[in-house]
Design a protein that fits this description.
It contains 15 helices and 43 strands. The chain is globular and about 95 Å long.
Length: 802
């Protein structure tokens, strides 16, 4: 399925022969005709054969759907609908008006839906054809509007899906409003299955695709049961479904179901089987092969909703809840699951021994981790989750990796292929139900209130004494709680250092590791931590932050935890001293490693590039406060003892939150890495980091700086321009004159150059997300040919000369 297949010659003939030239008989629907929605009366217009009907279907007690359905089978399967998002009541009317408009009005005469077409050429009639296509025609029998051109969730034989065509899954099996999945042929010729940003209809994350060098033109469903994807010249790019059957004996449809699976169904045109059982729709084929493992998205509900698990069975995907959880809505299995017990509190009232971890084998929940530890034992992973009030699930695998997740978790799946991976789900041992909402008192608080209440009730005479006391306690506790709330670092394992401690640790700031526009970094040794080396970063006073801004930044940075980010260990905010304490990176910066004499090998460079991309993806899409770095460059990439790349300096000067279009007025970043939108007063988004990463990736590939004034060849001064010229002229070897190892892997190197070219497109919308960058670097998706990015040269030059 979804692959190029070899077929016998007669199948190719079936594909090539046009299947739309068959004469269609029809029962013409004249101007002024109408249908009214009535209970227990599915009034309709039929096709000539009677196989299809259009009219009202009663979906709920007082909710009607204007739809087209199969009318000769017991199961009146709907294949098209007009008002799935807004059902109409009894008494509503659909009419082909005397002036040629096809409109649906509710019982009060308000227009709910209308077919969009021009009546300037004159409408003569409408007809429901035997193909299931409802058409509106002029006197020349030219179709002005067709339901086939505006599908909902289903395609029928002789129907095609053209560029920008979309099928939307319904919300549930019985709810015809727009759901969570879409099947679309994009204008660039890519055929994709997407999850949506439900309840919005926009695309979220692709989970199946058909992409080819030739631009896809249309998806055709022919009468012989073949669904295939063609280019503009008619050549077959791929086959979606091959089910050669006699169309006169079977009904067929291809439906994007509410569970996200596109299924090709058949139904025999006989009333019952030889065994006397009623016939039903049979699945001929479906994509993707396993929806449970196909959907892996950085944000969103996954295949089965938040806090749930997807398991593929013979009948299709099944959504399950872990132990201690129950389904949120029995009528909507994709809505996810909820906890049935009181979650672990972060105060002393909930000890770890009150909870247990239930093991689920062959289970994983990719993405949305907030911590990763490796290599560790399973016992260590278990204990770490039990002692962490934020941890609700730990994922442990045979590689000794321990991922911790909070609520809600997503992308849950149970699959035999996940051998060696297990989920450890935290539940309360006593299975107690959720506590009353809003009650934050401990047991001690409750007993205190009971005693105070008893005294008040039994001895009103001492009210004058008790009242001031209670007032004092309430006020003092309120201020105490506010004081705690002001501290932004609770639960983040950040250590507070005094200025004197750090002064002593750095031997009075003696050994400088580096300096920049906003800070100087010194090497330190923590006597309190067995002589552990740290990097102590002193922020300059000219940064101009107040305490609230500094606290917000430390809170955001402290919550990040990913192996490709430098870990923040602690901080100091004492008077004018604002200092951050980071883990020490023994191998220094990528700049010194990349541009020095002992250059990293090609494998190391590829791993560094992939590590940086994963760190940026985490900052952009996975951490609790999304962060735009704004200054990606080799000097801000540090290397640990295994040469693992770690991003530093994220969020130090000011967080650029993604719910704001632009939070600063001046250009940020380092010359040569700054995206063009900084110069054009355009909104600043995560795509500025993608641009900087593209320049950095070229430096990693070529082991040379972005700008080389000393180059003997003027064409080679700007690395980005030179790299594209070499790529375009098929002379990539010129970039690698001193790098024989990379020359041996020229195909991989070419792919990396292509990824870089996509990243540095002048138009931010053309740049891929960091998730897409990772997939391209890892070979999960193909890298399309990048457009000519010559227009960005002026931006780079402008950047370098300011």
């Amino acid at each position: 399925m979804a692959s190029n297949l070899a077929y016998p010659l007669f199948f190719i003939v079936l594909v090539i022969l046009p299947c739309y030239t068959m004469a269609q008989t029809s029962k013409n629907i004249s101007l002024g005709s109408s249908l009214t929605a009535k209970n227990d009366d599915n009034s309709s217009w039929s096709s000539p054969s009677g196989e299809f009907a259009i009219g009202f279907q009663q979906i709920v007690k007082d909710g009607f759907l204007l739809a087209i359905w199969f009318d000769k089978i017991q199961e009146k399967t709907i294949v098209w609908s007009a008002n799935g998002d807004s059902l109409v009541p009894q008494g509503s009317k659909v009419e082909l008006t005397s002036d040629g408009q096809f409109v649906l009005n509710d019982a009060k005469g308000n227009q709910v839906w209308s077919a969009d077409y021009s009546t300037s050429t004159g409408v003569s009639y409408a007809a429901l054809l035997d193909t299931g296509n409802f058409a509106i025609a002029n006197q020349n029998s030219t179709y002005l509007w067709e339901s086939f051109d505006e599908p909902t969730d289903t395609m029928l034989p002789t129907q095609s899906l053209k560029q920008n065509g979309v099928l939307y899954a319904r919300y549930t099996n019985t709810n015809y409003s727009t759901g969570r999945f879409m099947f679309t042929l994009q204008s660039n010729g890519h055929l994709l299955l997407y999850t949506t940003n439900f309840p919005q209809n926009s695309a979220n994350s692709e989970y199946w695709s058909a992409k080819y060098t030739d631009i896809g033109f249309q998806v055709i469903f022919n009468q012989s049961g073949l669904i295939y994807f063609t280019s503009k010249n008619g050549s077959i790019l791929s086959t979606i479904s091959a089910n050669p059957i006699a169309s006169q004996d079977f009904y067929q449809r291809a439906t994007l179901e509410y569970d996200g699976v596109l299924r090709h169904y058949t139904y025999p045109k006989i009333s019952s089987s030889s065994e006397g059982r009623p016939m039903a729709w049979s699945t001929a084929s479906f994509i993707p092969p396993n929806i449970c493992t196909s959907i892996v998205q950085a944000r969103g509900f996954g295949a089965c909703g938040f806090n749930s698990l997807c398991q593929l069975e013979d009948a299709g995907p099944t959504c399950l809840c872990p132990e201690g959880y129950s389904i949120l809505d029995p009528n909507d299995k994709l809505k996810g699951c909820k906890q049935d017990f009181a979650p672990q509190s972060c105060d002393a009232a909930d000890a770890p021994d009150e909870f247990d971890l239930k093991e689920m084998k062959n289970t994983n929940m990719p993405f949305l981790d907030y911590e990763l530890f490796l290599p560790v034992s399973e016992d260590w992973c278990r204990q770490s989750c039990l002692e962490d009030c934020f941890c609700v699930v730990a994922i442990f695998n045979s590689g000794g990796q321990c991922y911790k997740k909070g609520l809600p978790f997503s992308n849950g799946r149970i699959d035999p292929s996940l051998t060696g991976t297990k989920a450890l789900v935290k539940i309360r041992k006593d299975n107690s139900t959720l506590k009353n909402g809003g009650a934050n008192f401990t047991k001690k608080d409750d007993s205190t209130l009971i005693i105070v209440g008893s005294v008040l009730l039994s001895s009103l005479g001492i009210l004058n004494f008790i009242l001031p006391l209670v007032t004092y306690v309430v006020v003092s506790r309120t201020f105490s709680r506010k004081a705690l709330e002001v501290q932004p670092y609770k639960g983040m394992n950040l250590k507070y250092f005094t200025y004197e401690e750090l002064k002593k640790a750095t031997n009075e700031f003696k050994e400088e590791l580096g300096s920049g526009a906003s800070a100087t970094v010194f090497k330190g040794v923590l006597a309190c931590d067995e002589g552990k080396c740290v990097a102590v970063k002193i922020l300059y006073a000219k940064v101009g932050e107040n305490d609230m801004e500094f606290n917000a930044e430390v809170r955001a940075i402290g919550r990040t935890n990913q192996r490709n980010l430098v870990q923040l260990l602690g901080y100091c905010n004492e008077g004018k001293h604002r200092i951050l304490v980071y883990e020490y990176m023994i191998n220094g910066t990528l700049a010194s490693f990349l541009f020095g004499e002992a250059r990293p090998n090609w494998y190391q460079r590829r791993q560094i590039a992939l590590g940086v991309s994963k760190g940026l993806f985490y900052l952009h899409e996975e951490c609790s406060n999304q962060i735009v770095h704004c200054d990606i460059k080799p000097q801000n990439i540090l290397l640990d003892d295994t040469f693992t790349a770690k991003i530093s300096d994220f969020g130090l000067a000011k967080l650029l939150r993604l719910d704001q279009t632009r939070t600063i007025t001046g250009i940020r970043g380092t010359r040569g890495y700054v995206a063009p939108e900084w110069f054009k007063n355009l909104p600043i988004t995560t795509k500025v980091d993608v641009y900087s990463f593209g320049i950095l990736l070229l430096e990693i590939i070529c082991c040379r700086k972005k700008y080389d004034e000393e180059s003997a060849d003027e064409d080679q001064i700007i690395l980005a321009d030179w790299a594209y010229d070499c790529y375009n002229q098929r002379k990539l070897h010129l970039l690698l004159e001193k790098n024989d190892e990379t020359n041996e892997d020229i195909k991989m190197m070419e792919k990396y150059v292509m990824v870089a070219m996509w990243c540095i497109q002048e138009d931010p919308s053309l740049r891929p997300s960091m998730k897409k960058v990772i997939h391209m670097l890892e070979g999960i998706v193909d890298v399309p040919i990048p457009p000519d990015p010559s227009s960005f040269t002026s931006s780079i030059l402008l950047d370098l000369t300011h």
